[in-house]
Design the sequence.
């Protein structure tokens, strides 16, 4: 008879430790497909976005760094993402119209990310990579046209 060789150490319990945060992580994963879980995910995302907007607005009020875009700073021509920081600054001050006017594509993208658990995320994952790239390219072109018109480079 062969002597038994010791195998790998097996944990005494398969339950995650409450001290390590494993219980919360397991509970979070289990709630993914439920209505309360989806609502909780949207609320967590909204709280994070609101906190980021308030923080960006507070930092901007304390110290205005000027133009952040390297393309606009060197050439004066805005890039497709110009106005994205302004969206968060204006949202942090609750100036919703000014946030939308700064870059509407950024507002739509942020809304899609915030509400992705309600359905847009599943729709996005079902798209082929080619369609995703086409949609992202069209959004970038629309954003750039908006920024060029906003800064007077393009008459619409």
Sequence:
């Amino acid at each position: 008879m062969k002597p038994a060789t010791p195998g790998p150490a097996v944990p005494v319990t398969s339950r995650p430790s409450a001290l390590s945060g494993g219980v919360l992580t397991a509970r979070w994963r289990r709630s993914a497909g439920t209505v309360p879980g989806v609502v909780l995910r949207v609320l967590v995302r909204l709280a994070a976005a609101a906190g980021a907007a308030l923080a960006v607005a507070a930092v901007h009020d304390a110290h205005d760094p000027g133009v952040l875009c390297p393309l606009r700073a060197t050439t004066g021509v805005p890039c497709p993402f110009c106005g994205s920081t302004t969206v968060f600054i204006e949202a942090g001050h609750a100036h919703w119209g000014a946030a939308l006017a700064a870059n509407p594509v950024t507002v739509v993208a942020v809304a899609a990310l915030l509400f992705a658990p309600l359905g847009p995320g599943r729709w996005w994952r079902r798209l082929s990579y080619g369609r995703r790239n086409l949609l992202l390219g069209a959004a970038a072109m629309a954003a750039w046209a908006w920024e060029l018109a906003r800064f007077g480079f393009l008459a619409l």
